[in-house]
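Protocol step 4 of 5: obtain the predicted structure for the target chain.
Materials: sequence only (see below). No template structures provided, no constraints applied. The aim of this step is simply to have a reference model before the mutagenesis design in step 5. Sequence pasted as it appears in the construct record:
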Amino acid sequence: MAVTAANLTTVAGGVQATSYTTASTSPGANKLELLWVYSIAATAPNIPTITWNSATWAQIDTQLDSSGLRRITLFRSLTASPSSGTGTIGFAGQTQQGACWSYVEYTGIDTSGTNGSGAIVQSAKNASAGNATSLTVTLAAFGSASNATAGGFGIPLNTASQPTVGSGFTATGQANQGSTNTSIGSEFNAGNDTTVDMTSGAASIPWVGIAVEIKVASSTVTPGARITYVPPFMS
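Step 4 output (structure tokens):
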């Protein structure tokens, strides 16, 4: 079994609001849901709260960029009975100049723990010290060669700076909001990758990113299955 990823929605949510209504989604039962949220405000953005799909969203990590005015936060959820519909991303009454988010669903994962905790082996975050043309988030050595890698990055958008996936990764989401200069990108590698990165070409801008190791489901023997014993050869 291998971990797989599917984008449910990745969008730029609009300008100057204290909360944002998302597109409608239909997540699957007992699948890992990861949600990266990136926003900009006049002061340090509040950590958002998530109300979506009848799930409990637990914060994995959060990171401010070098200006202190932009933040990326990663959440996880997993439920046996998700609902379909729109959600709300709120900032406790604080006005955001703009926000964007990437919601990705993963199958073939460990379903133990609560709200997807068993599927997340480790997380890491990073921010560029100032302007840069790329960012790498470094994970520790993986617990299993079968585990997978996911990352999400936020940058202030300009015409040359849409985030591009790193080597070995495929894009799971990309959204750009030019009028308030916010952009988000998420990526996935079905294998191990301790250097989770994205680039912005020639554009030098402040970066933030959060990455995780996703635990693959354990292989099990189906109850009632017949197991045949073959004795060793005796000379």
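Step 4 remarks: The chain has no helices and 16 strands. The CA atoms of residues 165 and 198 lie 5 Å apart.
Proceed to step 5.
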